[in-house]
């Protein structure tokens, strides 16, 4: 009898150990599946981001950040005048995200029902006057533009920087006509840094990016000609999940810190 009881206890112990082992295996499998699911849910693939020319440096840095934080993700950046990029979207050129340098240009895309949702304003920008480092025309204020034979450049009026320039020149009652109108703000900046004009109107962020290649003059009433930069995932985005992850980076704390470092101002409080 005693031996039979001992045998029964031993059998029970073996069975209990086996059940625990099986249970542990199930947990491990569940944990492994959860880990695999988490990995699978991380956004991957490629997206094409269309950005206003003024965003070149900031988005370049954010591309590096984004790709390092999202293994397997690739961001293809394309920069130009916002009006050119918006027209590309309206014409059906494939892209996943659009970021423009003003809200009016973005409206052409939303009016065409080509945005996946409401654009989000993520930054603002103001204009400054820039000259070559030695300021050969001795320009001290925006009133000096075009005076005494000096030359200056602005963006074409249908570009956000051109529309803002017109507003600012009107506010400051500058009647002189620009010597040249460039397709985007980088074109204006290049004219100045090459010494092809005596001055130009560019965004504060572009002036900061140019560093010692320009001298910066703060114009009056610049705070009344502010452009707001919106961003949106496009309706026909081939990779909407990854596109939204990019928008989240730009509008989040990390993106805002990078934008500020390149001279952008934050979006106005709602």
Walk me through the structure.
There is one protein chain. The protein contains nine helices and ten strands. It is elongated. The protein has two domains: 45-124 and 228-261, Periplasmic binding protein-like II (D-Maltodextrin-Binding Protein, domain 2), CATH 3.40.190.10; 127-224, 3-Layer(aba) Sandwich (D-Maltodextrin-Binding Protein, domain 2), CATH 3.40.190.10. With 270 residues, it is α/β, with parallel strands linked by helices. The longest helix is centred in the N-terminal third of the chain and has 40 residues, at 2-41. Helix 2 runs antiparallel to helix 9 (253-261) and helix 3 (82-90) packs parallel to helix 4 (103-111). The model is unreliable at 1-40 (pLDDT under 50). The protein has a five-stranded mixed β-sheet with strand order 2-1-3-10-4.
What's the gist of this structure?
The chain is α/β, with parallel strands linked by helices and 270 residues long. The chain is 45% helix and 19% strand.
Layout of secondary structure:
Elements (H helix, E strand, L loop, with lengths): L1 H40 L3 E8 L3 H14 L3 E8 L1 H9 L6 E3 L3 H9 L8 E6 L1 E5 L20 E4 L4 H12 L8 E3 L2 H9 L5 E5 H7 L4 E3 L9 E7 L6 H12 L1 H9 L9
Parallel strand pairs: 1-2, 1-3, 6-7, 6-8
Antiparallel strand pairs: 3-10, 4-10, 5-8, 5-9
Helix pairs in contact: 2-9, 3-4, 8-9
Summarize this structure as a short list of keywords or feature phrases.
five-stranded mixed β-sheet, 45% helix, 2 domains, D-Maltodextrin-Binding Protein, domain 2, alpha/beta, 270 residues
């Amino acid at each position: 009898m005693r031996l039979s009881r001992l045998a029964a206890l031993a059998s029970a112990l073996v069975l209990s150990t086996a059940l625990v082992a099986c249970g542990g295996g199930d947990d491990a499998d569940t944990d492994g599946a959860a880990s695999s699911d988490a990995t699978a849910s991380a956004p991957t693939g490629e997206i094409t981001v269309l950005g206003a020319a003024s965003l070149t440096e900031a988005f370049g840095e954010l591309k590096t950040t984004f790709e390092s934080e999202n293994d397997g993700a690739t961001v293809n950046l394309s920069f130009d005048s916002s009006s050119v990029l918006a027209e590309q979207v309206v014409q059906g050129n494939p892209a996943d995200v659009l970021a423009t340098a003003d809200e009016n240009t973005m409206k052409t895309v939303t009016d065409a029902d080509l945005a996946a949702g409401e654009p989000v304003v993520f930054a603002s920008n103001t204009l400054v006057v820039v000259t070559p480092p030695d300021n050969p025309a001795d320009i001290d204020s925006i009133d000096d533009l075009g005076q005494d034979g000096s030359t200056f450049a602005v963006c074409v009026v249908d570009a956000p920087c051109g529309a803002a320039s017109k507003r600012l020149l009107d506010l400051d009652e500058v009647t002189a006509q620009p010597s040249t109108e460039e397709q985007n703000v980088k074109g204006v900046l290049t004219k100045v840094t090459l010494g092809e004009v005596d001055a130009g109107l560019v965004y504060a962020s572009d002036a900061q990016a140019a560093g010692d290649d320009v001298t910066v003059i703060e114009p009056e009433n610049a705070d009344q000609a502010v452009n707001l930069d919106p961003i949106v995932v496009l309706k026909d985005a081939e990779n909407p999940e990854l596109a939204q992850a990019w928008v989240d980076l730009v509008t989040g704390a990390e993106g805002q810190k990078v934008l500020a470092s390149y001279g952008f101002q934050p979006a106005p409080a709602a």
